[in-house]
Prior knowledge:
The protein has 585 residues and is an alpha+beta fold. The chain is built from 15 helices and 31 strands.
Amino acid sequence: xxxxxxxxxxxNEFNLLVxxxxxxxPNFGHYSSILATVFVDVKIKKxxxxxxxxxxxxxxxxxxxxxxxxANITAGVINYYGISxxxxxxxxxxxxxxxxxxxxxxxxxxxxxxxxxxxxxxEVAAIEMLTSGYSLEMVPFFEExxxxxxDIVFFGGVVDDGTVSGQGFVFTGDETIYxxxxxxxxxxxxxxxxxxYGSGWRPLGKTMTVTKMKGFHTICEIDDIPVKNIYEKxxxxxxxxEDFLRESxxxxxxxxxxxxxxxxxxxxxxxxxxxxxxADFKVGDKVRLCYGNPDIIIYEARNLxxxxxxxxxxxxxxxxCWARKQILHKDVNQELEACRKSAPSTGVYAFGEYIRSxxxxxxxxxxxxxxxxxxxxxxxLKPMDEIKLEPVKLERTNSxxxxxxxxxxxxxxxxxxxxxxxxxxxxTDFLTNLMNRGELEAEMENSLYxxxxxxxxxxxxxxxxxxxxxxxxxxxxxxxxxxxxxxxxIIKQSIRSTDRAGRWGGDEFIIVFNNAGADAARNVAVRIRxxxxxxxxxxxxxxxxxxxxxxxxxxxDTVLTLFQRVDSALYKSKKQNxxxxxxxx
Length: 585
C-alpha cells in the first residue's frame, strides 16, 4: 500500500499535484485499486466540481470520496485552509465507494439495505463513512449496521454539518450529497487494519436524568429543569448564544450506551431553553457533565499513538472532533504526532466521530480522536523500546487549565467519597452492615414495581433467632451482638449478588430475592439454617436455631401486604411448628 497526501492552496495547485501523482504512479508497479480522498475547505467549496472533474479525467479508474470541512489533517498536521487530497494505492486490496441517499424516516431500512450489500461482499476489512448534514436520525441505521462481523473496523464522521459556513456536502466521483453519507468499503484478505480511540474528558458532578426531548438530538429538560438552567447552575453562564457554544467544548455531557461511555457536545441553542447536540440522547438517559483537561486529552492520544506506531501502518486515516482543536489550541498537533512519525496520513476535524465498541456496536460520538492504520501483507509489531515520541509540553494557557482541572477533579473525588460514606451510613444497619429497615422497604417497593411489568419475580424471606432474649439475659448484650453479626455474615455468604438482605429490627432479618421463586428461597433458607446451627461461639453452650417464613409476591401486593404475609409465615414457624422450621405461605 502507498499513501500519498498533498495539501493544495487552490484549484491550480491541485491540478499540478494531481498531474505529479500520475507521473509517479508507474513507479509503484502493479496495483489493484486507487482511492482519492479529498477534503475541501468550506470557503472554497464552489470549486469542488472542478476538482472531481480533474481527477476523473486523469485517473478514470480511481474511486473518489470526500467532503467539505472546516479543518483537514494532511501529513499529520492540522490545516485550516486549502484542499487536501490523498491517494491510497493498494497492491491487492479493493475499494468500493458508494453514496447513501438519506431520509430520516428510512433510517432503519437504509441500514438493512447497506447491511445486505456488505454481507454479500467478501473479505471486508474496514468501512469509512463521511457524513454531511445536521442531526441525522442514525440510531436505527446503526442498530442494523452493528450486525456486521465484529472484526470489521468502522470509522469516519460528520465532516460538515452546515453550522460553520452554510450547507456543506459529501461527494463521490458521480454524486454530491447535502444530507447523507458517502461510504468507502475496504476489502481484501491481505489488508490489515488497526484502530484506536482517545478521548480524555472525565465526568464531573452528579448524575442527572434526561426527562424531555424533541427528536433524537434536542434536550428540553434534565431532571425536569430546562437544560439552559442546568448550564446556568453548573457553569455560571447566562449567555445562550454562539459564545456559549464555543466555551461549552470544555464541558460536554457523558452518557452510557451498553457499557460504552460516549460524549455529547451542544451544537445549537434555542430560545426556549433547549439545546441540540452533536449526537443522540433518549429520555431516561443518565448523564453527567464532563470536563476537558488538556494534559489528559493528549496523554490518551499518546497511548493510542504508541499502539499505532507499533502496528507499523503503511497509510493512516485520522478523525478528530473539532472541539479538540478548540480546547487544545496550539497544542493540537501533539495529538497527531503518530500521523507524522509512523506513516503518511490524511484526515479531518469533524462534528461527530464514528466509533465501534468492543461489543461491535457502532455509535456517533463527540470529543473523540480516531486513528486508523492500514497495511497490506504480514504485520510485524515494532518493539516498544523503538517507539520514540516527543515529551508532552503544554503551552502556558493549557498548562494552567490542566492544573485547575486536576484540582477540581481532586476536590470532586473527595466530595463524592464523603457523600458515598454518608449514603452508606444512612442505608446500613450499623451493627451487621446489612441494609437497614428503610432500605429494605425501598428494595421491596422497587421489586414490586418491576414485578407489575413482568420484569422480575419477588420472594421475601423473614427470619428471627429463636430464644434470642435468653441469650441476652444469660450471656449479656455483647454476646447477643456477636450472635447477630455472625448470623448476618452467614446470610451474606448464602445469597446471590442480585439479592438484598437487611436487619428488620432486633433479631429479625429479611432477604428480598430478585428473580427467584419460593422454592429457590427455601433452598437458601435451609442452607442458612444449617450453617447457623453449626456456629461455634464457644461462650454459648447450646445450639442456636432460627425460624423462617417465606412468601412470593403477587401482582396486587404492596409492601404492607407482602410484609404481613411473610410475618404470618414466620409466626407459623415459631408458634405452630415448634421453632427451627421453615414455612412458605
